Automatic annotation (TrEMBL):
Membrane topology, from the record: Multi-pass membrane protein
Record lineage: Bacteria, Pseudomonadati, Bacteroidota, Cytophagia, Cytophagales
NCBIfam families per the UniProt record, alphabetical: NDH_I_L, PRK06590.1
Alphabetized InterPro entries for the sequence: NADHpl_OxRdtase_5_subgr (IPR018393), ND/Mrp_TM (IPR001750), NU5C-like (IPR003945), Proton_antipo_N (IPR001516)
Domain of life: Bacteria
Domain NADH:quinone oxidoreductase/Mrp antiporter transmembrane residue range list: 135-422
UniProt keyword list: Membrane, Transmembrane, Transmembrane helix
Domain NADH-Ubiquinone oxidoreductase (complex I) chain 5 N-terminal, residue spans: 67-117
Transmembrane segments: 6-22, 29-49, 84-104, 116-134, 140-158, 179-200, 206-227, 248-266, 281-299, 306-325, 331-352, 373-395, 410-432, 453-474, 513-531, 615-635
Compartments, as annotated in UniProt: Endomembrane system; Membrane
UniProt-recorded name of the protein: Proton-translocating NADH-quinone oxidoreductase, chain L
Length: 648
């Protein structure tokens, strides 16, 4: 139990030490402190897994302290260790540790080295709270924490104005989704009188499918997920988040933070199973996001932007899986995607490091022979994300496509088209970067070199997992047990209880072979097409000024950012200016200042009555006596008249 409590405490301690002493602690010590904290959390995760398995695979609740008590509502600050939290702990701490190791080499020359590791540790602490919390409130604390850390890390190089704008954009767009999530939590409290997962899900078993309250709850929670996990319409922050250092892209925007929304849906699976209408929306939003982002990725020339839109697209596939109630398949892709996308981002960072900061793939080429470890590991990640067997991405993506096929054939066609685009633009990226002749400057070519061991070691480890990671979910047709599905099965007992058809009918083997064949063939065709167009770095994309027509529209991301700016940002700015320069100074300030000026003016006049002149005081006394006598005389006259006319 103690080790479970320490899992999030280690990175918090690392944050406090590096955060308070980053100006005094040496770079070497700061790096080892931050990395050591992440590694200790990983060791704690292993211990938590052992304790969980020894306890008969029953959820372990670790209460830290009782937090809020309002009437019958009790909210505790506590952790829950079960199948889902353990899997996320391994992903967050395992991949997180590798990224910390990588950062020691990548950020070595940065003047904010210690501060960077402090922020990484704070992010890890927040993410661990999110996945370990035993209720929605603790999850929300972690949820907001990773949002704050994304702002700090995206805008880490805050002297660049554009990077600061990217950080603010991520923060604000996440707040839009977070409002929906918060409303969903309030609705959960109203409906169930508790926020504890086990209690909420037990009470949910007594509700009917399509219950209006559950639909409202799941819809609000999904709004929160669209913000954190970058789905339409709240996806535009993620590509801009590439402004942060490359390890940030790998940690936050590939392996951990962007999967928060998916974790929340899997955790709340019984609620979503009770709301098939919400699930349908989730599925179609995921399909639209996967296809839309893939089309944009085809024409991007910034190595990190290609990977960013790839991330948005892959998240779309995961939401598609959630929407067709294939929770295990969707989470399977969360895990495999963490391996190969972290590998690709770190590989991109190694390329950028070798190219002295250059990120435009049009100015690269021929790097395969110069940075061989990076090239080989990047190729492994590219094959994995393209869905080629037996690499990790093949197993998880094939499983999603099979479930989507059973749910809706049109959605499956769209998903396959998106998959083909993924293979095309990823190999386009690989061919333009690593094959052909070098297109950079002579100075860049002179300085091109392989990254240090601290950067290549995480690449090699992640490459191994990108190859073998998919074997935790081998399809049934190969007659091997689906280890991940068996491990996660208890998580979905509630969904099976409220809807016996939740598990669905197994796909017959002939159909599964057909779908698998189509998926692989589509990917191979896309790879061959990419090779015919860009193999050997032929047909280098045109400069920005020469791009025109529909390609220019796609290259500029369909001008969605410009549309958002015109529809939302500009009107809000005009409204703000109206309040700032008209309503505030001439309205509120005018009223307040007017009252003050009136009081000041009147007091100035009245003050003169107390000037201290004896003559004026005698004059005032005479006037006062005259007024009093006049009033008394007037009163007597009025009374006399009333008596005379008989008025009482």
């Amino acid at each position: 139990m103690l080790l479970i409590k320490l899992i999030p405490l280690f990175p918090l301690i690392g944050f406090l030490i590096n955060g308070l002493g980053f100006r005094k602690i040496s770079k070497g010590l700061a790096g080892w402190l931050g990395t050591g904290a992440a590694l200790l959390s990983f060791v704690g995760a292993v211990s938590a897994y052992q304790a969980f398995m020894a306890g008969g695979e029953q959820p372990i609740i670790v209460n830290i302290f009782d937090w809020i008590t309002v009437g019958s509502l009790n909210i505790s600050f506590s952790f829950q260790i079960d199948q889902l939290s353990i899997l996320m702990l391994f992903v967050v701490t395992g991949v997180g540790t590798l990224i910390h190791v990588y950062s020691m080499g990548y950020m070595h020359d940065d003047e904010g080295f210690g501060k960077f590791f402090a922020f990484l540790n704070l992010f890890l602490f927040s993410m661990l709270l999110l996945v370990m919390g035993s209720n929605y409130i603790v999850m929300f604390i972690g949820w907001e924490g990773v949002g704050l850390c994304s702002y700090l890390l995206i805008g880490f190089w805050n002297k660049n104005f554009e990077y600061g704008n990217a950080a603010r954009k991520a923060f604000i767009m996440n707040r839009v989704g977070d409002l929906g999530f918060l409303i969903g939590i309030f609705l959960i409290i109203n409906q169930f009188g508790t926020v504890e997962y086990l209690q909420v899900f037990e009470k949910a078993k007594g509700l009917s499918i399509g219950n209006a309250a559950i639909i409202a709850i799941t819809a609000c929670l999904f709004i929160g997920a669209t913000g954190k996990s970058a789905q339409i319409p709240l996806y535009t922050w993620l590509p801009d988040a590439m402004a942060g250092p490359t390890p940030v892209s790998a940690l936050i925007h590939a392996a951990t933070m962007v999967t928060s929304g998916l974790y929340m849906i899997v955790r709340s699976n019984i609620l979503y199973t009770l709301a098939p209408g919400t699930l349908e929306v989730v599925a179609w939003v995921g399909a639209a996001t996967a296809l839309f982002a893939a089309t944009i990725g085809i024409f991007q020339n910034d190595i990190k932007k290609v990977l960013a839109y790839s991330t948005v697209s892959q998240l779309g596939y995961m939401f598609m899986a959630m929407g067709v109630a294939a929770y295990t398949s969707g989470f399977f892709h969360v895990v495999t995607h963490a391996f190969f996308k972290a590998l690709l981002f770190l590989g991109a960072g190694s390329v950028i490091h070798a190219m002295s900061g250059e990120q435009d793939i049009r100015k690269m080429g021929g790097l395969g022979g110069k940075i061989k470890i990076t090239a080989i590991t990047f190729l492994i990640g590219t094959i994995a994300i393209s869905g080629i067997p037996p690499f990790a991405g093949f197993f998880s993506k094939d499983e999603i496509l099979a479930h989507v096929y059973e749910h809706n054939k049109i959605m499956w066609v769209l998903a396959v088209i998106g998959s083909m685009m993924t293979a095309f633009y990823m190999f386009r990226l690989y061919f333009l970067t690593f094959t052909g002749s070098f297109r950079g400057t002579h100075e860049q070519e002179h300085h091109v070199h392989e990254s240090p061991f601290s950067m290549t070691l995480p690449l090699m480890v992640l490459a191994v997992f990108s190859i073998v990671g998919g074997f935790m979910g081998i399809p049934e047709i190969f007659h091997f047990p689906h280890a991940l599905a068996e491990f996660m099965k208890p998580l979905f007992a509630g969904s099976l209880a409220v809807n016996p058809e939740f598990a669905g009918a197994p796909i017959d083997h002939s159909t599964e072979w057909m779908l698998m064949g189509i998926s692989v063939a589509a990917a191979v065709v896309s790879i061959l097409f990419a090779y015919s167009k860009f193999g050997g770095s032929k047909n280098v994309p045109a400069e920005d000024s020469a791009i025109e027509g529909f390609q220019k529209t796609v290259y500029n991301k369909y001008y969605i950012d410009e549309a958002y700016w015109a529809i939302f940002v500009t009107p809000v700015k005009h409204l703000s200016n109206l309040f700032a320069y008209v309503v505030e100074p001439k309205g509120f300030d005018g009223i307040v200042n007017g009252i003050g000026n009136l009081v000041d003016s009147v007091s100035g006049k009245v003050r003169k009555l107390q000037a201290g002149g004896t003559g004026f005081y005698l004059f005032a006394m005479v006037i006062g006596i005259a007024v009093i006598l006049t009033m008394n005389l007037g009163y007597q006259v009025v009374e006399t008249i009333k008596t005379f006319v008989g008025i009482k």
